[in-house]
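>> received
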Amino acid sequence: MKRPTNDSKTAPALEFNNVRYYYPGGTDVLRNVNFSLPTGSFTYVRGESGAGKSTLLKLAYFGLNPSQGRLFIFGKNVAYCSRPQIVALRRHIGLIFQDFRLLPHLTAEENVALPLIVSGQYNKTTAKRVLELLDWVGLSHRLQANPYTMSGGEQQRLAIARAVICRPRLLIADEPTGNVDDKMATRIMYLFEELSKSGTTILFATHHDTLVKAFPHRQLWLRDGTTHLTDEGAPDDSRSLAAAI
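>> returned
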């Protein structure tokens, strides 16, 4: 039987097709979730605490497997991907976690350079990019510092720099501006917008209403018992994504 797939050159960067997720012995966290993210799009994930935002993001980067439904990354049906294929896909995904997940024994510079080293892209040119990016997020004075000596805000900025250094095809960010001040949050948003313009698809979970208003993009809302996504970011279209896509 031929495995279902899409043309990766024209397919959405991320697509949920009737995805359901529930924890064993528990109730649904997500049910009948349908949406797609075009390449280079910038989309906020919104909703009350406990609505399922973090679960949706974990599904998007293979941290969880759907209980039902189909999930496509860059046109590939995740259910039919081998472990090596999953590893290869992950190399094109940048992740920003709320708990940072930095390597404590590495310096700030080494943490950011690590994705380049692992992917074989580290050289004089990319090493210079590491320094420029650390300067952009305000950490040029902390290059040799280990994460455990840094404040929460500094660790947040370091995690962001590490996630974007390889210019990922898909950037998944869980409250990436939650530990920084408004000035730095604005600076980080300009960085994300430039990435989006260059082709990176961004999925960004946030509670920050002011930031969303200052940088308007499509919004996916989780509500009604964490079972539906609606598009409330587009000014002329507030239809349910399940009906529209």
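>> Strands lie at 14-22, 28-37, 42-47, 68-73, 76-77, 93-96, 170-174, 201-205, 218-223, 228-231.
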